[in-house]
UniProtKB/TrEMBL annotation:
Protein name as it appears in the record: Homoserine kinase
GO biological process, one term: threonine biosynthetic process
Subcellular location: Cytoplasm
Residue ranges occupied by any GHMP kinase C-terminal domain in the UniProt entry: 207-285
Keywords: Amino-acid biosynthesis, ATP-binding, Cytoplasm, Kinase, Nucleotide-binding, Threonine biosynthesis, Transferase
EC number annotated for this UniProt entry: 2.7.1.39
GO molecular function: ATP binding; homoserine kinase activity
Species annotation: Neotamlana sargassicola
Reaction(s) catalysed (UniProt annotation): L-homoserine + ATP = O-phospho-L-homoserine + ADP + H(+)
Location of the GHMP kinase N-terminal domain: 67-147
Listed GO CC annotations: cytoplasm
Assigned protein family: Belongs to the GHMP kinase family. Homoserine kinase subfamily.
């Protein structure tokens, strides 16, 4: 096999209380990529559709990830990458992570899987760092593994897969504005109070337990962010109005997806998730800001071959 087409999914990072460690994978939105083996050594990006991204591998998230993996190989051939970008950069649903994961996953498949998924994520971190100016894997891990994941540590990289209820759905609104991850990090406090820290790690622990036990009431009680949301929400137009409409429509909880501007909610059942979608559509229709809405089951597989 010399060519492969893959789907690399969008993801939601942080999941309210789990800044830089928690994430989950979406089912019906993501990037398509084609990876092929070629005689010429090196990594070359030959085609990009959807958004204006650099063709130079050293300046492209997919390219940097691929180069990190390529440098760990002893091979006398190279790879070409085509990117069909469906996730808008700066959307808050893991655009850069999808590119990074897709490139290394596709290369690994063509090579007969010499690396495991954790090793692939380590290569992808190099690309993600290009976009966000720091190394983190809260989007990369769910894109690679699927489902809910917790990043226990970066050095060494430890990724824990978390089971979740079968009837858990996400509703996401993506206002068509851009907030770069590096910019959204600049508004965060350097220190937090002990009381806020206690509240936050209590919510993380209870959310993990709730996902394991399919305790929807506890999921609802745990989806709170007292540290990041108060600062980043100011960057997102109509944030509180959207969040309130999600909760009033029956969502278990709602918060900023990643660095924003997307806002996610978790819901019990597809019917409730669709009600939430209608509620937030009514809010944003009058704002003059274009938007997309996604209703998605939790994707338990992650990146895959098409």
């Amino acid at each position: 096999m010399n060519e492969i087409k893959i789907f690399s999914p969008a993801t939601v990072a942080n999941v309210a209380c789990g800044f830089d460690v928690l994430g989950f994978c979406l089912d019906n939105v993501g990037d398509d990529m084609v990876i092929r083996k070629v005689d010429k050594k090196g990594i070359k990006i030959t085609h990009i559709e959807g958004f204006d991204l650099p063709y130079e591998a050293e300046q492209n998230v997919a390219g940097v990830s691929a180069l990190a993996m390529y440098e760990a190989l002893d091979i006398d051939f190279g790879f070409e990458i085509e990117i069909y970008k469906n996730i808008k950069p700066g959307s808050g649903i893991g655009s850069s992570a999808a590119s990074a994961v897709g490139s290394v996953f596709g290369m690994n498949e063509l090579l007969g899987r010499p690396f495991n998924k954790t090793q692939l994520t380590e290569f992808a971190i190099k690309g993600e760092a290009l976009a966000s100016k720091c190394e983190h894997a809260d989007n990369l891990a769910p894109a690679m593994f699927g489902g809910f994941t917790l990043v226990k540590g970066i050095k060494p990289l430890q990724i824990l897969e978390i089971p979740s209820p079968d009837d858990l759905f996400a509703t996401i609104i993506h206002p068509q504005i851009e907030i770069k991850t590096s910019e959204s990090r600049a508004v965060l406090p350097k220190e937090v109070s002990l009381s806020d820290a206690i509240s936050q790690w209590s919510n993380v622990g209870s959310l993990i337990h709730a996902l394991h036990t399919s305790d929807y009431d506890l999921i609802k009680d745990s989806l709170h962010d007292v540290i990041i949301e108060p600062h980043r929400s100011k960057l997102i137009p109509h944030y509180q109005e959207v969040k309130n409409s999600m909760l009033n429509a029956g969502a278990l909880g709602a918060c900023i997806s990643g660095s924003g501007p997307s806002i996610f909610s978790l819901c019990k059942g597809e019917e409730t998730a669709k009600k939430v979608a209608e509620a937030i559509k009514n809010v944003y229709n009058s704002t003059g800001i274009d938007f997309d809405i996604h209703v998605s089951k939790i994707n338990t597989k992650g990146v895959k071959i098409l």
